Amino acid sequence: MNRRVYVTVRALVRTANTPLAKARLTRALRKAARPLKIEVGGIQKQDGWIVTNVNAVTKLYLDATTRWPVEDGSASHVFNDNVIEHLPLEAGRAMLAEAYRVLQPGGKIRTVTPDIRAHVDMYLNGGPAALVDPMFDGYTALGLKIEHPVDLIRIPIGEFGHHAGYIYDFETLTAELERAGFHNVTRCRVSESDDPAFSAWTSARTRAAHRSLSKRRVNANFFAISLSKFGRANRRVSGWHQDGCRTQIRKAVP
Description:
The chain is built from eight helices and five strands; from the N terminus they run H-E-E-E-H-E-H-H-H-H-H-H-E. It is an alpha/beta fold. A five-stranded mixed beta sheet has the order 2-1-3-4-5.
């Protein structure tokens, strides 16, 4: 399809679908049992989860940078995969603040986002040898041109629309999470979680990733972060792993 025609048609579809998708979200939230499990920026349906997006054809529309139509402390889990890096810093802060508001004490959020430090370290330490890293298989499978080691830095910043958003390393994301009220941020592997709700989600994503070389390779240098609000229960916090992070954060109970 001609690009101009595609853009026009997609805009028309978005205009028609968005109010319907907002209404469907309202109904879904009204019917859903509490506590809720919410995915921001999701596409793939998952049992027990409210899966939202802002794309033109989403079934359930949620702009996560504005106030969510969800009552305070009504969710146990929030999940977002490759979302926050598409948002400018202030918009990302708004999303984290809303996630914190809707999570109940002891609730958790898991965030997956590119780790710019991992890319920079690979560039600085790898030299020309970095060009044969398996991660590049994923990038080339996505149609990206790889010619020099500096592409390790150029791609996560300049491609996928990330230039319009904000790119994180672990320290920066930790600071933003703590700013929103979360605590005890911890790294973990992208496809692993000791929380049953996230385990089912990440296992499904991992199976899908194994069917896609590009997804499997690109995720090698992404964070996976899970956060939980501070509660009375003593929850175990996982340790650091090489290719990602999981964060458990808690909020004091009044």
